[in-house]
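The protein record now logged underneath.
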Amino acid sequence: MKHHVKVGKFKQVFKGKIFTISQAKAIMPSGKVHIYEMAKRMPVAMVFALDKGKIIITKEYRFNEKRFMWWIPGGFFDEKEKPEDAARRELLEETGYYAKKLKLLAHTKGSTIEDFPYYYFLATDLEKRKKHLDDSEEIRVYHKTLDEIFEMVLKGEFTHERHVFAIMRLYGYLKKK
């Protein structure tokens, strides 16, 4: 019995402003046919900015939840933008801080059915400047200790799973130092 899956070429079936959806036909080892789907979008940079021993987080209005939620500053890359450039731009736009130094903490791609690249950075050596929010953004800026943020995760105040992952990665990195 064969033990490999023969997957055809993915073909785009939907293109929106943010997402594209592609499908590919697969033939399983048993001979059954399955259609795989893959969602794709522009990469996202998320930035933990360390300012005088506290981490900058935000509370942002999220239209799908119809409420303000705790959030990590960040957003989509601009066309052909490098991860570090996207991180600096998003941090400045949303918080008014410019990062002179960035360290990549993690890079993830998503699950088996989504291609949603995320780059997680730690920003240090900050310079205060002016915020430049997009028209659709309502963002409040807060400074919290790492332990306060970790406690917020435990209480369920951070609900976005990628943010929880990023906070855990940051916690492990900073606690080792």
Remarks:
- The radius of gyration is 19 Å.
- The first helix runs from residue 83 to 95.
